[in-house]
Amino acid sequence: MPLSLTGIIHTIIGILAVFFGLKMLWQQKQITSHSFEGKFYLVATLFTAISALTIFKHGSFNAAHALAILTILATTSGVVLEKTVLFKSWNKYFVHLSFSGTILFHLIPTSTEILTRFPMDGPVVTSLEDPFLHKTFLIIFLVFLAFIIFQMNWLRNKS
User: Which domain holds residue 143?
Assistant: First the structure.
């Protein structure tokens, strides 16, 4: 199934967001709104999440739409928490958990799209129920969990 114009724009901006997000996590161990890259990542992430709510490849509201809503909530709560001190000394942990969590929320639908579309003549996965897709989600989640543990320890030691 070919991408719509909305799908193409959504995909391009989403790829750029994931690139900038992973680059910041790799280089700085965190995503913040204090740099151009961070601002671009957060705006692109919001755009990608909002545009995802208009895409109905599988017919109706589904898990990808729920992830889009979680992404919007995580991004906006991270921005609010970054500018306030609502949770005192715990604030930085919630900010980084929110922003880093958006990477997880990007990677789940991204992996689904890649595995259900490529190779074009015979995608790796033909159903959302495919065990390979679920194993892929598990691996992404475990890598994310390991990174979050690393990041939280890094934040604790940084203070």
Answer: 5-158
Residue 82 burial (CB < 10 Å; 0-12/13-18/19+)? buried
Measured at the CA of 134, the angle between CA 100 and CA 154, to 5 degrees, comes to 25
Judge if pTM exceeds 0.90: yes
Number of domains in the chain: 1
Distance CA 97, CA 148 (A): 7
Q: What is the dihedral of CA 53, 104, 39, 115, to 10 degrees?
A: -60
Tell me: the pLDDT tens digits for 37-81? 999 999 999 999 999 999 876 668 888 899 999 999 999 999 999
Question: Could you please report the per-residue DSSP string of 95-115?
Answer: HHHHHHHHHHHHHHHHHHHHH
For the record, the structure tokens of 120 come out as 């074009």
User: Residue 29 corresponds to which tokens in the numbers above?
Assistant: 């161990």
pLDDT < 50 positions in the chain: none
